[in-house]
Amino acid sequence: MVLDGFYKSLGLALVVAFSIYIVICSFRVQTKVIETLVSGPNDRSKTPAQIKNYNDEAEDKLLVSKYRKSYEDTIIELEDSINTAILSEVIKSAEEVAKDPKGANATISKINNMKVFKETLNEAMKTLDKK
């Protein structure tokens, strides 16, 4: 019987110690978040330069001047492929969409996603033309 009280006390002590540990860890995380949010403008003034460096490195890796024609051809072929896929999907699912437009949400979303990708390809081509 005496051991039952001892084990209960020991269990309670472990729970309290673990709870205190969790509270302390959460304060550390909260402190890091607050420090990040409150850090001064001096830290943020370097951000544009860092982003420009990252962009320059990415452009250097692409070697646009050397592979421009290949990149243009790739984008053109992808656009042709997407156009064909959109046409195919529209023809294939026309009956389904006509019967139940609300029930064909997945098909419509698929076609719209291909259209958005086509617009992304056009933006990529414009970006390539600026380089």
Structure characterization notes:
- The protein has 131 residues and is mainly α.
- It folds into two domains: 1-39; 63-131.
- It is 91% helix and 0% strand.
Features:
single chain, 131 residues, 2 domains, 0% strand
C-alpha Rg (nearest Å): 29 Å
Strand fraction: under 5%
The overall number of domains is: 2
Contiguous runs where pLDDT drops below 50 for at least 5 residues: none
**Principal-axes shape call:** flat
Biggest pleated sheet: none
Assembly state (oligomeric): single chain
The overall average pLDDT, rounded, is 85
**Termini, distance in Å?**
83 Å
Number of helices: 5
Helix content: over 70%
Structural class: mainly alpha
Give the ordered list of helices and strands. HHHHH
Layout of strands and helices, then pairs:
Elements: H1 2-38, H2 41-44, H3 47-62, H4 64-99, H5 105-130
Helix pairs in contact: 4-5
Short description:
This protein has 131 residues and is mostly helical.
